[in-house]
Write a structure and sequence with these properties.
single chain, alpha/beta, 6-stranded parallel β-sheet, 3-stranded antiparallel β-sheet
Amino acid sequence: MDDKIKKLADLIKTSEYVVFFGGAGTSTDSGLLDFRGRNGLYNQRNYMGYEPEEILSIDFFLSHTDIFNKYIEEKLMINDVKPNAGHIALAELEKMGKVKAVITQNIDNLHQEGGSKKVLELHGTLKDWYCLKCGKRADRRFDCECGGVVRPRVTLYGEMLDEKVTDAAISEIKKADTLIIAGTSLTVYPAAYYISYFRGKNLVIINETPTSQDERANLVIRTGFANTMTEMMKILKNK
């Protein structure tokens, strides 16, 4: 495994345009659950009589707002969660001029809190809540004085992704000579769809379980995101 991490350090050192694409597995070292892992949210069925995919839909939000909010608070609480070593490493790589963009499927804001500046959030963020009636905003859920319904700026099932963000993500992937994918199985739309735009030299996958793109990758690392990035940075700084 050390040889693979050394190879990752070499690839990053010699790359001109590194883009990072991450999923829920990048946040598990911060204490958050992933979605489809062994203990993931989608394996915890029947919350108050409803399935997770149903709760996280726009129709359910509008018809059962209280249950939706309770689920978010109990299962997706992020207010006291801190970035892990992997997030910090990505921010360092950005400062070094290596990582040009971070594309994330996560809604936890941890990349920004870790120091990354150019972050494209495909599914929005739980750090931005707004009132549907008056537009008031806050970084967490609140009860609006106007009496309007408050929601997070996240893309729920049944809603379209933000076209500006998706176009920007595709543009960054097209420009990358090295694409690092971490913490995602790449089996669910739109992840695999975005990866199809990559035309660069080096495809790196960091994931503890197999993904749908392993055969295409130049380098596959089967350790966790935070540990892999920490060890890689030690090597890179000594080169």
